[in-house]
From TrEMBL:
Domain remark in the UniProt entry: The Q motif is unique to and characteristic of the DEAD box family of RNA helicases and controls ATP binding and hydrolysis.
Recorded catalytic activity of this chain's protein: ATP + H2O = ADP + phosphate + H(+)
Location of the Helicase C-terminal domain: 283-445
Protein's UniProt keywords contain RNA-binding: yes
UniProt cross-references to PROSITE patterns, sorted A to Z: DEAD_ATP_HELICASE (PS00039), HELICASE_ATP_BIND_1 (PS51192), HELICASE_CTER (PS51194), Q_MOTIF (PS51195)
InterPro entries named among the record's database cross-references: DEAD/DEAH_box_helicase_dom, Helicase_ATP-bd, Helicase_C-like, P-loop_NTPase, RNA-helicase_DEAD-box_CS, RNA_helicase_DEAD_Q_motif, SPB4-like_CTE
Annotated protein name in UniProt: ATP-dependent RNA helicase
Chain's role: RNA helicase.
Membership in a protein family: Belongs to the DEAD box helicase family. DDX10/DBP4 subfamily.
E.C. number: 3.6.4.13
Length: 852
């Protein structure tokens, strides 16, 4: 590893002018001086690191008043100071010391409380104390659930890390993989989204995370939830287990299963606001209104018209709604800028919208939940959740886009009548203080007539409205918590009219889904019946014993049924244990534009959720579900019994193409599963199950293949690294090349040099990333790796590699000549051959030699 720090930056600052001065005897002396000073600076850094490390053990959160009370490197402290961060927040005070000591951390603190610095500072320090350099590759990985959040974190890192010499990269998709590929394996800190990172792990030939020191999961509960689980499992497999792991979120996961996946080592749970009365920021004012679905759009319009001097963030359930509502608001011109942010937008537009909204003082941004977590948009006055959030956690994150870091803000939740009971219970259980307010209908400004005429004159708008209509219903249908989200409770005709549609679109997907569900049930039932039949045939000899056993089974079924129910309950009431000290909702009077306490009944609930009837319905559902489950359990248990009685139902032996029995360990689980499934198939061929099995097999085959390829790549990489290290020990040439990599962010220009982290393109400048005209060095370095992802075929890769290494050698020579005065000088002094002849004679001889 190379010595790091400012000294090197200073060296490069004056590197070019010195080039000419290294000639002759004086030049040699200068060069020696330079080496000495570098050696000295390396010693200074070493002693700084030793001194910092000695202080780690003594860090006490209660003693920390300012950032300089932490044992932090000068580079980090200066970076923080320049970014105007002087006093740490509570979560920073509590967690930074522990992270410096090397603990794995589960950090939880309210939204807007400064969790980003709580993990970025330890990341910088971790690499600094290890004197990390570009030759060491990837040292820190920060994973975010959305591109916007990754981008934002990257910006903060650039600010506070500008005095460090690490390279940092934003790997978030939305641009050509090749652009990133060329640089990724020289990046020390990667901030990424899971999908894109995995794509690099799979497809980028020379990308490795083998030497990773620290892993951060921002919004950890989201990253670890089902939506990302496949990607995350694959990513974690590629990370070395010996690393530090930091998990942060306002709604931290404590799921043992999640944490086990990350192989945390004695993690410290740091919860800055665990004993706080509320789980949302104290300066956040929270209200909710109950509003019919068909009144929502008019309500929103009225709200916006009444808040033209505010910055408002509106959350909607689907991309299609965001598109439609943004479009109609844009056309109707409420008198304030309206923007839209959703996942179906292209990356540049997404970043542009995000930046625009950040800059604006008054604007309305319609967004899906991609804007729900982590975004630190300055001065948002209102967060309107026009569509109900999936659960209380999503509510907390959405509402947390306002009232950040000591600032105030207001959040308004809009619920349709059928959502009120279930949602408010969840919020109360999560210690969220929310008041019910009522809307003054006199102040509601209906835009239905305008929408009708707009839609009539523009078929594309009509299409958008239809999509928005279906998008909303689909999102409700897909919600797992049916207590809150019941698509059948919605008046779809009125909803459709409220969007300006003359005829409600046909809701085919509902019927289709219901039909599919019924088919699945029927299939399940049929295969169970076959199983029973087979079991009965095979077990006829068991006689009366069976009766006894079935009695026992029904007991165990009852137990199992109980367990299932219990699990369901505990799932749905994840937060119920936290329900003490809940502030009950009271009717409030905050919403200044349209509140009217006297008119309580004007927005009456259309179909109040009647707890009795609801529970009856639910119980009914549950009963039929339970009975099905009982039946299933019973037959399964019966089959098990047969096994116990040593009635061998089926044995499957799988053979490979050479006729050998398959003993592959990785396949064992499927084979086992196959066996189980075979048992179920006794009565005939189950096509669906067979297809599933094939898919499963296919997946495993692919995985094995991927593993093999990866293993091969890993070995090759290791080999190359060893070679490189050996070479760098041997001579100065390689050392200069490595140092040049660090110089990538340092063009010699003072401003650019100040920001060595920014050499990886941000989405804004990604298009310019290929433009290296100002600096020859990066273009050469890029050329060295650019071929690495040009082919997926292994043979081609090997060829590429050979070419690369040749090119690399040539390039490094070129660079030595052009850009490194120091090594150039050295090369010259070592290789200059004094023939004792005049220059003219030397040239003649050379010419003759060439001609011969
Ligand atoms: N020590 C500090 N001093 C001053 N401002 C700070 C400090 N730490 C963080 N901030 C500011 O507080 C705001 C919120 O910080 P940050 O985005 O890290 O919050 P968070 O806890 O990650 O929020 P969320 O849970 O929503 O992701 C930012 O604008 C940040 O600049």
């Amino acid at each position: 590893m190379n010595p790091k720090g400012n000294t090197r930056a200073r060296y490069y600052e004056t590197n070019k002018p010195r080039k000419d001065k290294f000639k002759g005897h004086k030049g040699k002396i200068r060069k020696q001086e330079l080496f000495k000073s570098r050696l000295k600076s390396s010693q200074v850094i070493d002693s700084e690191i030793t001194e910092l490390q000695l202080r780690y053990a003594k860090v006490q959160a209660k003693d920390i008043k300012t950032f300089s009370d932490f044992p932090l490197s000068k580079n980090t402290l200066d970076g923080l100071q320049k970014a105007k961060f002087t006093t740490p927040t509570e979560i920073q005070r509590e967690s930074i010391g522990l992270a410096l000591q090397g603990h794995d951390i589960l950090g939880a603190a309210k939204t807007g409380s400064g969790k980003t610095l709580a993990f970025l500072i330890p990341v910088l320090e971790c690499l600094y104390r290890q004197k990390w350099s570009s030759i060491d590759g990837l040292g820190a990985l920060i994973i975010s659930p959305t591109r916007e959040l990754a981008y934002q974190t990257f910006e903060v890192l650039k600010k506070i890390g500008k005095l460090h010499d690490f390279s940092a990269g934003l790997v978030i998709g939305g641009k050509l993989l090749k652009e990133e590929t060329a640089r990724i394996n020289r990046t020390n800190i990667i901030i990424c989204t899971p999908g894109r990172l995995l794509q690099h792990m799979d497809e980028t030939f020379n990308f490795t995370a083998d030497s990773l020191q620290i892993l951060v999961l921002d919004e950890a509960d989201r990253i670890l939830d089902l939506g990302f689980s496949r990607d995350m499992n694959a990513i974690i497999e590629n990370l070395p287990p010996e690393r530090q792991t930091l998990l942060f979120s306002a709604t931290q996961t404590k799921s043992v299963k999640d944490l086990a996946r990350l192989s945390l080592k004695n993690p410290m749970f740091v919860s800055a606001h665990e004993n706080a009365e509320h789980s949302t920021p104290t300066q956040l004012e929270q209200n909710y209104v109950v509003c019919e679905l068909h009144d929502k759009i008019s309500m929103l319009w009225s709200f916006v018209k009444n808040h033209l001097k505010s910055k408002v963030l509106v959350f909607l359930a689907s991309c299609k709604q965001v598109k439609f509502i943004h479009e109609i608001f844009r056309r109707l011109r409420p008198g304030v800028t309206v923007l839209a942010l959703h996942g179906a937008m292209n990356q540049l537009k997404r970043v542009d919208t995000y930046n625009q909204f950040c800059r604006k003082q008054n604007a309305v941004l319609f967004a899906t939940d991609i804007a729900a977590r982590g975004l630190d948009i300055p001065e948002v006055n209102w967060v309107i959740q026009l569509d109900c959030p999936e659960n209380a956690n999503t509510y907390i994150h959405r509402a947390g886009r306002t009232a950040r870091y000591q600032k105030g803000g207001e959040a308004l939740l809009v619920l349709v009548p059928s959502e009120e009971k279930g949602m408010i219970e969840q919020l109360e259980a999560k210690k969220i203080p929310i008041n019910k307010i009522r809307i003054n209908p006199k102040k509601l400004w209906s835009i239905q007539a305008k929408l009708e005429s707009l839609l009539a004159s523009d078929p594309s708008l009509k299409e958008m409205a239809q999509r928005a209509f279906l998008g909303y219903l689909r999102s409700i249908f897909l919600m797992s918590n049916k207590k809150v989200f019941d698509v059948h409770q919605l008046d779809t005709e009125k909803f459709s009219s409220s969007l300006g549609l003359a005829i409600p679109p046909r809701i085919r997907f509902l019927k289709r889904e219901e039909k599919r569900q019924a088919e699945r049930e029927a299939q399940k039932k049929a295969s169970l019946e076959r199983l029973t039949q087979a079991a009965e045939e095979a077990g006829s000899s068991l006689g009366s014993e069976e009766e006894n056993s079935s009695e026992q089974e029904s007991e165990s079924e009852a137990e199992q049924g109980h367990t299932v129910k219990h699990t369901e309950e505990s799932d749905s009431s994840e937060s119920e244990s936290e329900s003490e000290n809940v502030r009950t909702s009271e009717s409030g009077d905050r919403l200044d534009f349209n509140l009217d306490d006297d008119n309580d009944d004007l927005f009456t609930v259309k179909r109040t959720v009647l707890p009795d009837s609801e529970s009856e319905e639910e119980d009914g559902d549950k009963l039929s579900k339970d009975s099905k489950e009982k039946k299933a359990q019973s037959k399964y248990a019966l089959a098990k019994k047969l096994q116990k009685k040593k009635v061998k139902v089926n044995t499957k032996v799988t053979f490979d193409e050479e006729g050998e029995a398959v003993t592959d360990v990785m396949k064992k689980s499927t084979v086992d599963k196959d066996e189980e499934e075979e048992e179920e198939e006794v009565g005939g061929i189950d096509i669906a199950a067979a297809r599933e099995r094939m898919l499963e097999e296919d997946k495993i085959d692919k995985q094995i293949y991927r593993e093999r390829v990866k293993q091969k790549h890993r070995e090759e990489r290791l080999k190359r690294r060893e070679e490189r290290k050996a070479r760098s020990k041997r001579g100065q040439v390689e050392e200069v090349e490595d140092e040049m990599l660090v110089q990538l962010g340092d063009s010699g220009d003072e401003d650019e040099r100040e920001d060595p982290l920014s050499f990886i393109p941000t989405p804004e400048n990604s298009d310019e990333s290929g433009d290296d005209s100002e600096d020859d060095v990066p273009s050469k370095k890029r050329r060295m790796v650019v071929n690495s992802d040009s082919s997926s075929e292994e043979e081609e890769e090997e060829e590429d590699e050979e070419e690369n290494s040749k090119e690399e050698d040539e390039d490094s020579e070129e660079e030595d000549e052009e850009d490194s005065g120091e090594s150039n000088e050295e090369e010259e002094s070592e290789d200059d051959m004094d023939t004792g002849l005049t220059l003219q004679d030397d040239e003649d001889i050379a010419l003759r030699l060439l001609q011969s």
